[in-house]
Amino acid sequence: MTTERFDTVIVGGGQAGLSMGYHLARLGRRFVILDAGERVGESWRRRWDSLRVCTPARYSCLPGRRFPGPGFTYPGKDAVADYLEAYAADYELPVRTGVDVEALSRNGDGYVLTAGERRFEAESVVVATGAYHGLQVPSFAAELDPRVLQLASTEYRNPSQLRDGGVLVVGAGNSGAEIALEVSGTHGTWLSGRHTGSEPTRAGTVPDRLLMPLFWFLLSHVVTLRTPIGRKVQPKVKAGTPLARVRPKELEAAGVERVPRTVGAQGGLPALEDGRVLDVANVIWCTGFRADFGWIDLPVFGDDGEPVHDRGVVESEPGLYFLGRPFLYGFTSSLIGGVGRDAEHLARQIAGRRLTSARAA
User: Fold this and answer.
1) I need a labelling partner for 351 at 20 to 30 A (CA). Which of 114, 122, 126, 186 fits?
2) How far apart are CA 21 and CA 301, in angstroms?
3) Residue numbers of the domain that contains 140
4) How far apart are CA 338 and CA 220, in angstroms?
5) Residues 56 and 93 in one domain
6) C-alpha span between 180 and 193 (Å, rounded)
7) Domain for residue 332, yes or no?
């Protein structure tokens, strides 16, 4: 097993990891970014074909580089992936793709990470694996008849994948609403789950363009853990964000039927909370994601599986940091245009810790 040593190892080469790399490079740190994908931006390329980001291009920028194209357009997922790939190349960030970190543990005053036959040692580790880990598919999904095609939102690409017959989309957040609207053009469609509300303006409209600067300022500087309103909003944001692009009236006009929660299986078919059983040929699970940190062998997690931290700094394990998690510090913490602020904060923490250690020595 080969061993390499760095000041800092960043796990994850998406927008969070690249932002972290940008700020560490500016501070002259020696670091490496490890990513399981075979290509920078791969997690974006794997999403459904018509996916677009929920923030305009001018608010979807990583530190130091604007997003190409008109500022108030909403880039597609492949454009985002290309942007991330170009960003890593232009700033010559040391990204190693195809490296799937399997374990992280303490090693004296530092940390050790293993990935197959490779071993990495570091004084500091930044976990920047993003906000979307394992999809939360309910256990009763295994009870559905094999004739019912089941797709996770991360597996869905376009309606051509679906079998003839109805489609039940489970989960009514942004992903569920957008996918339901798309498949309704070719299939009878039911959308299961509670309405998470809608943003005040619809993405791309004139009111959206006029009010977005104010919205972005509020989301970035007011809706944070530093303010009472931010602390009040945090649990609601984690439970589901308002719809950005799709409105309930559009779903209704497209023939999408809103139904209660899907709570089980009956006769191999999905059963709803109101007792109805839907005879559908397809189920698309848009049921959100859960934290998946089973590879981290450190006692730093709460009962909810989330790391216990102060703005990404794990005080119980000096040198360990988390970045890109939902509402890490504020509403924009997991967004492309918001993660850079948290990355800059953590880079300063890492540099300050190293300086303190050097003075002590």
Assistant:
1) 114
2) 25
3) 135-198+242-285
4) 7
5) yes
6) 12
7) yes
Final residue before a domain boundary, out of 285, 315, 336? 285
Average pLDDT of the residues in 79-86: 98
Task: Evaluate whether residue 192 is within a structural domain.
Answer: yes
Quick one: pLDDT at residue 94?
98
Please answer whether residues 296 and 181 qualify as being in contact, where contact means their C-beta atoms are separated by less than 8 angstroms.
no
DSSP 9-29: EEE--SHHHHHHHHHHHHTT-
CATH assignment of the domain containing 169? 3.50.50.60
Kindly tell me if the per-residue pLDDT of 355 is higher than 60. no
Closest to 194 in 3D by CA, of 169, 174, 171? 171
Using CA of residue 15, residue 20, residue 26, residue 29, what is the dihedral sign?
A: negative
What are the tokens at 281?
A: 């040929």
At 319, the amino acid letter reads G
Model pLDDT for residues 238-292, shown as the tens digit of each residue? 667 788 889 999 999 999 999 999 999 999 999 999 999 999 999 999 998 887 8
8 Å CB contact between 332 and 241: no
pLDDT tens track for 318-346: 999 999 999 999 999 999 999 999 999 99
Sheet holding 149-152, edge to edge: 149-152, 282-285, 167-170, 189-192, 257-259
- How confident is the model over 22-50, as pLDDT tens digits? 999 999 999 999 999 999 999 999 999 99
Quote the tokens at residue 145: 């008849």
H or E segment at 77? helix 77-90
Is 115 in the same domain as 141? Answer: no
Distance, in Å, from the CA atom of 350 to the CA atom of 24, rounded to the nearest integer, reads 9
Its pTM stands at 0.93
Number of domains in the chain: 2
Q: Per the domain annotation, does 212 fall within a domain?
A: no
Range 108-114, long-range pairs (CB < 8 A, 24+ positions): 109/319, 110/319, 111/9, 111/319, 111/320, 113/9, 113/11, 113/34, 114/1
- Residue 225, in any domain of the structure: no
DSSP letter at 142 equals: G
Shared domain for 278 and 343, answered yes or no, is no
**3-state SS, residue 213:** helix
